[in-house]
């Protein structure tokens, strides 16, 4: 069952406050998945500190996300959704690091983290 904050982000396309998610500071090896359906979305080796206040990644897992155009703030942005359940995850921007040059800026409340076990 989703918390009210998770529901607002995933199903109503809200945005969490910057620097509010503990996942922003998660640095262990592991996997980030959709809190709505459990689909694996990002590997920890693609996560980096963008300084934006949201967990950021330079690439998702293959076929894990879908995108659409969002005009909610008056400019076009690329919105990122879980490809399985359609949950809103965040946005992707063209100001990320190599090798992709992309910054998948995700709401931590839309994600779960599973540490890698030895």
From TrEMBL:
<feature type="domain" description="MsrB">
    <location>
        <begin position="1"/>
        <end position="116"/>
    </location>
</feature>
<dbReference type="InterPro" id="IPR011057">
    <property type="entry name" value="Mss4-like_sf"/>
</dbReference>
<dbReference type="InterPro" id="IPR028427">
    <property type="entry name" value="Met_Sox_Rdtase_MsrB"/>
</dbReference>
<dbReference type="InterPro" id="IPR002579">
    <property type="entry name" value="Met_Sox_Rdtase_MsrB_dom"/>
</dbReference>
<dbReference type="GO" id="GO:0033743">
    <property type="term" value="F:peptide-methionine (R)-S-oxide reductase activity"/>
</dbReference>
<dbReference type="Pfam" id="PF01641">
    <property type="entry name" value="SelR"/>
</dbReference>
<dbReference type="GO" id="GO:0005737">
    <property type="term" value="C:cytoplasm"/>
</dbReference>
<keyword id="KW-0560">Oxidoreductase</keyword>
<dbReference type="GO" id="GO:0030091">
    <property type="term" value="P:protein repair"/>
</dbReference>
<protein>
    <recommendedName>
        <fullName>peptide-methionine (R)-S-oxide reductase</fullName>
        <ecNumber>1.8.4.12</ecNumber>
    </recommendedName>
</protein>
<dbReference type="GO" id="GO:0006979">
    <property type="term" value="P:response to oxidative stress"/>
</dbReference>
């Amino acid at each position: 069952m989703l918390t009210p904050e998770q529901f607002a982000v995933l199903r109503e396309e809200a945005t969490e406050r910057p620097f509010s998610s503990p996942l922003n500071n998660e640095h262990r090896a592991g996997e980030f998945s959709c809190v709505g359906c459990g689909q694996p979305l990002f590997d920890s080796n693609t996560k980096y500190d963008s300084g934006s206040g949201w967990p950021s990644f330079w690439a998702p897992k293959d076929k894990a996300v879908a995108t659409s155009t969002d005009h909610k703030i008056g400019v076009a942005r690329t919105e990122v959704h879980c490809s399985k359940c359609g949950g809103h995850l965040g946005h992707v921007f063209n100001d990320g690091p190599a090798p992709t040059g992309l910054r998948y800026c995700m709401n931590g409340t839309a994600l779960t983290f599973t540490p890698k076990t030895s």
